[in-house]
Amino acid sequence: MTRFEKPIFVTRPYLPPLEEFKRGLEGIWENQWLTNNGPVVQRFHKELSQYLGVPETNLALFNNGTLALELGFYALGLSGGEVITTPFTFVATSHALMRIGAKPVFADIDPETMCLSPEAAERLITPRTKAIVPVHVYGNVCDVEGFARLGEKYGVKIIYDAAHAFGVFSREERVDHAEKKSIGCFGDMSMFSFHPTKLFHSCEGGLLVFKDAALQEKLFNLRNFAIRGELDCVDVGTNAKMNELQALMGIECLKKIEKLLDYRRKIYDAYADAFFDCQDVKLIPYSQNKAYMPVLFKDFSTRERVYAELKGICNVYSRRYFYPILTDLCPYAYAKGNCPIAEDLAARVLTLPTYYGLALDDVKAISQNVRDIVSEPCGSMSKGC
Ligand code: T4K
User: Do 160 and 89 touch, CB atoms closer than 8 A?
Assistant: First the structure.
């Protein structure tokens, strides 16, 4: 097996050319303006509006995705209600609900896309349900039509956690920008995360896209303590403002977004070629932006062996996103055992390295390592299997 000299992580952030970033910094130094809706944040806001094809009135930037979700949930009035969501996600999705006093109710996922199943969600709707929060996990698109039907039928809000789905549009084929519809345009609201582990980032950051433009003022208030001017405070807000340095990073990364997306597709194709004839490694082909590189193994012990040997023998740090599922974690243990499909898939999934700059030869070598590990008799290379 190949042991890499330097560790290979599950992801690495894209960093723009330093000289270009420095030019942007010079402007910030001149302005002496660092946060509180400065000119660079306003420019980033405008550029995102153009890229996504969403009016400027229907966006709000935040300092991270978690606070964006929290404030979005709060602004839509979910506090005190039940919200149906998926257990197959990062803890931030349900933490944001809990933190505003909404109760996450966990429904199972679709076995193919690994996103929340509208049928499973519908079975849990009660008069207490205020919203459904599906997650476009790994950039796999949820059944947006199915959820739109539920929203209409039961009068509940549909809010997508689109943390992984930046660069996903509603049509698969590449079309002129004017015809594209961002995945963020579905439902009442969507949140994109701009954390450095995402394919597009602003160091840290989050973006809400919402249907009702009247929400913008509310969200702008909430992210700035809900103070208005020097003498007024209209709600219990917090500090969730993006700063100028974050926005500059976002602007520089946005210039390269097509290149970043193309490279992810190349990596996906290289893995797909490498596992083409391997029955023991199943790819999950539903993501348009290839934000993550999840693969499924036949059982838990194989997955654990691959994870451990990639790390211990090959110096490759894959991750078990999203294991354990949320209902196996202490704050959500009240729903333990309710989502068997999610439990099964989480026990078998592994996300392999993918990021801009990962050499395609390294992808080949990682894949060959995985093939070697799954084909070896159990435990022949690792201790204590
Ligand atoms: N909803 C969903 C569905 C999400 O997945 C997330 C976040 C959110 C909401 C919340 O959005 P944010 O508030 O984060 O904007 C990471 C991220 O911290 C988190 O953003 C992400 N999801 C989650 C899936 O993964 P960790 O703890 O696994 O990251 P960490 O620090 O272990 O990084 C992974 C690897 O990335 C490292 O081994 C090396 C590399 N790395 C990481 C960072 C931060 C770098 O090379 N450079 C870096 O700066 O949580």
Answer: no
The DSSP code sequence of 295-364 is: EE-SSHHHHHHHHHHHHHTT-EE-B-TT-S-GGGSGGGGGGTTS-HHHHHHHHHEEEPP--TT--HHHHH
Q: Which of ligand 1's atoms lies nearest the C-alpha of 69?
A: 9
Distance from C-alpha of 109 to C-alpha of 114, rounded to nearest angstrom: 5
Q: For ligand 1, is residue 10 a contact (CB within 6 Å)? A: yes
Instruction: Using alpha carbons, select from 109, 169, 122, 189 the residue that is nearest to residue 149.
Output: 122
CA 254 remoteness from chain centre: 17
CA of 155 to the centre of ligand 1 (A): 34
Q: Which residues pair with 233 in a beta bridge?
A: 227
Residue 90 beta carbon below 6 angstroms from any ligand 1 atom? yes
Burial 264-279 (b: 16+ CB within 10 A, else e): beebbebbeebbeeee
What is the amino acid identity at position 21? Answer: F
Bin 334: left if φ > 0, else alpha if -120 < ψ < 50, else beta: alpha
Q: What is the pLDDT of residues 285-334, one digit of tens each?
A: 999 999 999 999 999 999 999 999 999 999 999 999 999 999 999 999 99
Please, which residues bridge with residue 157 across strands? 131
Q: How confident is the model at residue 13 (pLDDT cuts 50, 70, 90)?
A: very high
3-state secondary structure 225-258: CCEECCCEECCCCCECCCCHHHHHHHHHHHCCHH
Give the strand pairing for 157-161 and 129-133.
parallel
- Residues 271 and 363: beta-carbon distance below 8 Å: yes
Dig out the tokens for 13 from the structure.
Answer: 């952030």
- Answer yes or no: are the C-beta atoms of 95 and 66 closer than 8 Å: yes
Report yes or no: 102 and 248 within 8 Å, Cβ to Cβ.
no
Pocket of ligand 1 contains residue 318 by CB under 6 Å: no
User: Quick check: CB of 321 below 6 Å from ligand 1?
Assistant: yes
Strand, coil or helix: 217? helix
For residues 356-366, average pLDDT = 98
How far, in Å, from the CA of 196 to the mean position of ligand 1?
7
For 375, the enclosing helix (H) or strand (E) is: helix 360-375
Instruction: Classify the C-alpha dihedral 319-373-269-325 as positive or negative.
Output: negative
Torsion angles phi and psi, residue 64, rounded to 5: -160, 170
